[in-house]
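Hey, can you fold this one?
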Amino acid sequence: MEMDAHPPAGQARAVQRDPVIDLVRFTCLFLVVVAHCMMVSPVLHKDGTVTTLNVLMEQGWFTPVAWGLMIVPLFFVLGGVTGLQSWRRLKAQGGTGFDFAQVRLLRLVRPAMALLGIMWGGLWVALLLGVHPQVIQLMTAGAAMPLWFLAAYLTAQLSIPLMARLYERAPFLTFASLVALIIAVDSLRGSIPVVAFANMIFVWCAVQQLGFFMADGFFEHRSRTWLVGAIVSSNLLLGLVTGVAVYPGNMVVNLNPPNLCLLLLGISQTATLQLLRNGIRGIAEARWLQAFIAVAGRRSMTVYLWHLPLLVGMSGLLLLTDLPQPLAGSAEWWWARIPVFFAVVTLLVPVVWLFARLENRPTAANHARGPSRPAVVTAAVVVLVPVADAAFNGLTLALLGGGAACFALAVLLLGRVPTPVLPPSAREGPELGAGHEPTLPEADLRANLET
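Sure. Predicted structure:
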């Protein structure tokens, strides 16, 4: 069966908000928060030093569980679906790749800027008040994991205009080329370890391409037998390459920097999502659930960025109290994960109330000129430099402050979003109506199409 035709240049397909995408994205975020609550366990030693124990990574049963629940590839698949749809809409309105980059940068960088700035200020105050530097470093590390994901996700999203052009010209050749680049990088990472970080681009762009295929109906038009075959074959290949020790069996180890295993998981997860899509839709279309997820979806980046720093900060502060700390990995410790999860959710409520507005769609400035192309490029570089430094060398208190300053500079460089100039045919289209000037992004776009 043939793949759906791509929209003609300058036109966008009519895209309605997909409740399945909303529900799956929310479920993925929920699983991430739960998993992190089961991982973080700071330990205060008799000599006053503090170390962090990742309890889940110490469990023998976690390796097969991580194989099934490593949902990071699915985030990038969903980002490919919604990103391609958003880019086509923007392009049809007269927008350019630089306009797309500007909106994406603003929506992802503004929430992160607040997190880094407040953490840097708060931790300096704690340091001046006499909190042990190791506790400060423990809390600082709490921002590192959200930042690496932000860097990878932002890089993939900024590539969408270019990757969409390549995809529309030769979808399968583009995907095959990315797979070849992934394998080439993996082949060199043993002798030249630093080259492995190139797969932060190639792996996630390839997984994002799966979202492009899903957005255009490729997976929708495959038979159930084909989808099951894709799931089985990708997992068999994954078992083969991990079983002969080409790659580690633990998917968390394979995550940063990513390798071919994450792409194989992405293929399996994409086919699984399509296989279960009708069943998920029956649940996702419940009105009360749609209303709840619509509210949560507009705050998802704030929840993602803040939940781990809050968890680490809360755990670090508990070390300074006389409260009994159960032994990591004991039955008491596992039972304690339940109140820990609800404590993190409770702490998130005021944080989301204060900072979620930074996730709002950037304001359109009618008849205003947007930032120049060099300003957008400079902003992207200014954002990626500190997060790349953190990925290579670890996050320090100084880098936390430098990152906050860089993110603030990027926001200033990007400014407000101008109204795009549309061709007459687009302006007179049936979706706009006479006398209506659209804004950038389009008014009915929601979190699942814009994050």
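Residues 1-14, 421-451 have pLDDT under 50 and may be disordered. Let me know if you want another pass with a different chain boundary.
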